[in-house]
Known about the structure:
Elements: E1 7-10, E2 14-20, E3 23-28, E4 31-34, E5 41-48, E6 52-61, E7 67-78, H1 83-88, H2 93-108, H3 114-119, H4 121-136, E8 141-153, H5 155-224, H6 230-251, H7 266-285
Antiparallel strand pairs: 1-4, 2-3, 2-5, 6-7, 7-8
Helix pairs in contact: 2-4, 6-7
Domain Band: 5-165
Pfam families: Band_7
InterPro entries: Band7/mec-2_domain, Band_7, Band_7/SPFH_dom_sf
Amino acid sequence: MGNLFCCVQVDQSTVAIKERFGKFDEVLEPGCHCLPWCIGSQLAGHLTLRLQQLDVRCETKTKDNVFVNVVASIQYRALAEKANDAFYKLSNPKTQIQAYVFDVIRASVPKLDLDDAFEQKNDIAKAVEDELEKAMSAYGYEIVQTLIVDIEPDEHVKRAMNEINAAARMRVAANEKAEAEKIIQIKRAEGEAESKYLSGVGIARQRQAIVDGLRDSVLGFSVNVPGTTAKDVLDMVLITQYFDTMKEIGAASKSSSVFIPHGPGAVRDIATQIRDGLLQATHHHE
Length: 286
């Protein structure tokens, strides 16, 4: 209908290509334009100026012979001042861009190991962008941004990488656990050593108190009862303790003591041994 009245409408963010008798005439900006078809003018087509995005998936291999799929995202647009070049010079700009992306990625990634490829994604994207900018500017297109959005190795490779990482973390955890157990054992040994030391000190003090008590008892009895000797007092103390022990054992309802046949006369031998020990302790104390 517009061509019938020699008028055409060009939408916003779009330009139209005007031809006269099949030859490029001019670029029509957005708005309403007169197109007198009677003198050979016609509309060849429209060209969008909007930002477009092309996702390219390229399979290649790294320097350490791991096949990966590299996904690149190319954002581009046609330049209004070069609309005639963008319209006439390329029949399929997406195919042209894809070919350059393949060429750059397959030239860059094989120089890197797999780990380096992940770390240098920005460098790969910059190389693709520079190459596309040089090539596509001649055809009236501007490369706005190039992104390497994903690098996907084979599933078996990803599983192996995860297992390596998990093994390394388990090794660190095992070392930490071993260090913790070592510290626990050291602290337990230190505690046992300290406990045994304090127990030994307590036993030594107990025995010293017993010796001091017996000595004081012997000396006090000898002073208050004239004519008695230390031996007599010690024998009497031992016999008293002997009968007290027998009384306590007999009073116990559930006794598990084992008696060895003996007589009261054996107390004398015990007294002799204790007296000798008492005298040695007293001598050592002096």
